[in-house]
Amino acid sequence: xxxxxxxxxxxxxxxxxxxxxxxxxxxRVPVQLHNERNICGLGKTLNKTGKLNPDxxxxxxxxxxxxxxxxxxxxxKTVLAVATAALREAEDGPWFVETVRERFGxxxxxxxGEEEARLSALGVVANxxxxxxxxxxxxxxxxxxxxxxxxxxxTQNTLPVGALRILSHDTTAARLDYIDQHLKTLDLSKFRxxxxxxxxxxxxxxxxxxxxxxxxxxxxxxxxxxxxxEAIEFTTLIARQNTKSLERMAGLPQRRVRDMPAAALVLKRxxxxxxxxxxxxxxxxxxxxxxxxxxxSGIKQKDPLISACREIGRETSRFSTEKELLSLxxxxxxxxxxxxxxxxxxxxxxxxxxxxGWFEHEDHRPRHAYLRILNMPLYGMSHRxxxxxxxxxxxxxxxxxxxxxxxxPELTEAAxxxxxxxxxxxxxxxxxxxxxxxxLTGGALTLLKHGEISVTDTDLNLTLTGRHTGIKxxxxxxxxxxxxxxxGHAAHITVKNxxxx
Length: 501
Fold this sequence. Notes:
By secondary structure, this protein is α/β, with parallel strands linked by helices. Helix content is 48%, strand content 16%. The chain contains 22 helices and 14 strands. The strands form 3 sheets. The chain has a 6-stranded mixed sheet.
């Protein structure tokens, strides 16, 4: 983390869990520096008593005491503390807020259901862009359902259909009746055939379970997708399980699986009612929406993927600036005739990440660069695009992609399973081109102005000028030949000033 960053802390007090997350800065794509979640069950008794659960109050205050100590030790100046359903509905909610203020000097903003929905939607927009469809945020005390069109909220509803309220009913029939009683007050048919973006701890646990059970190759929750039929079949299965069986099936600890049957039951009924085209799990939600809401309109408009890669590029590049890293993308672009916007973005992202492995031993650079990109928290990217980036930077660091199913397991098998042959070739081409650029410049990408790639119908040309370009030698010719073989061209190197090169 750069020394001039200003960490921001978010305290999120929910009906079931109390969260404390520290982000590295208030920026377009904030990175988590610290994240902890304590199950307190503040709203466990709310349905019966109208008050906060006494044991939950003790646990929550103990947790907040720790958070306050961490905030002081980390010297964090900006703290955003919010509370949702339990504190806004409980008779003794105001007492809890005042107690926290007196003991710890922290001001809790108890937000309305409408504000909770708005912030959750902003968290999705911050990550996935100006999307259309339905957003669902399932918590311990409530369910927010938000209709969104081109990134703008069109409808928002808060229902008292949280995990703790569902579990307060003893039978599946009673739980279904309670869920349906509230869902029938909404018209969800307008979202038929659209995307459904889901968030909230219990629903995200469902994604983790499905990834584990299906042995899905990429272990990243954000942007994990299921078609609706598959999702309904899965939620039907999970809703029937007890805690013990879920621990075995899902590979998750007891604290994660406790609310999963209730979460699955609610998700199943929403899917059957709304009939969306697909389910998209979002790794961002209310907390990220809270930060996004603080940004200027200019910063909000920045592309999330490129913004994240810019941050990483500034930290990891040895010699080159952000401008020079982006110039690498332009230098490579002639290899791709008429690139569309997604491909241009991929070239930019790959270039910004191109030096991410330099600080490892050279024998391990391909592996570490590949694994970092395959798993790092990047916004605004499908798993398929993530796999292409990981493969490209693997090849750039002298990694070699073996054919799957031959010999020992392939390191990059997970990413290769995510892409088709054309996308695999695209990743290799980007990677080889970046490797050529680094070979010519030694990583000082400003020197790319002394080399130019051009492509005709039959030929791939590398023109070198000036004394700092590199060498007209075997390693350069070999790389150019590999690139030419992929593109179906004949490779040529032209040196305009032999004595200077």
